[in-house]
Amino acid sequence: MGEPLEILISVLVVLLLLGGLIYWLWRSTPRHRDPLEPLDATGWLVIVDGSNVSFRENRARLEYLEEVLELLEHRFQGARFLVQCDASLRHRFRGKERRRFEELLAKDKRFAQAPKGRKADDFILHEAAEHGQAIVVSHDRFSKGPELEMRLNVPLLRISFHEDPPVLAQKILIFEDEDDPERPRVIDLAEFLESER
User: Fold this and answer.
1) Contact indicator for 95, 160 with CB cutoff of 8 Å
2) Are residues 93 and 123 in the same domain?
């Protein structure tokens, strides 16, 4: 009686060990990277579309923007950050949030505001193109009018707000072809950071 039980226990232990090994191998492959794993982004400029990431369900909240910035600071180790916002964003915040946002604009060098009447998108795309080693983080695809040309060769990292907390894409989009401006080249984020060093 004891021998079949010992065999069963031995088989279960082997299956558990084998399952653990398979899971470890699966998780360690690049296509299954932890989306929150810190990446070495030393020398990179991460430009955040501040107005875009402040909105969820048609409502602007400063906490949304700060949550995204915190996520990015964890993910992109060693990077510099620029949060570019439309001038109208301050009017979307209420009470303490508005005062806190105005304080960030005045005292935090990471925050910048486009001049009244100008779109932050223009400044975001221009800054990314000028800097060279820059990634734009937004939910926007910058696909309206002159943005199509301005976004050429600018690495774009999409962010999704369908989950809580927000989820960063694991792929960079780069629109390179002037003749086919709607089709991006898609590159793994970690591989992109390594290849562009």
Assistant:
1) no
2) yes
Asked whether residue 22 falls in the same domain as residue 112, the answer is no
At residue 160, the pLDDT reads 86
- Examine the pLDDT at 31 and tell me if it is beyond 60: no
How far apart CA 142 and CA 158 sit, in angstroms, is 11
**Amino acid letter for position 73:** E
**What does the alpha-carbon distance between residue 41 and residue 77 come to, in Å, rounded to a whole number?**
5
Each residue's pLDDT tens digit, 97-112: 999 999 999 999 999 9
By residue range, what is the domain housing residue 6?
A: 1-32
pTM recorded for the entire structure: 0.79
Helices (H), 29-119: 50-53, 62-75, 95-107
pLDDT at 27 > cutoff 60: no
Residue 150 CA to residue 122 CA, distance in Å, equals 8
Query: Can you name the residues that pair with 76 across neighbouring β-strands?
Result: 39
Same domain, 91 and 128: yes
Q: Are residues 142 and 119 in the same domain?
A: yes
- Among candidates 143, 149, 99, which has minimal Cα distance to 126? 149
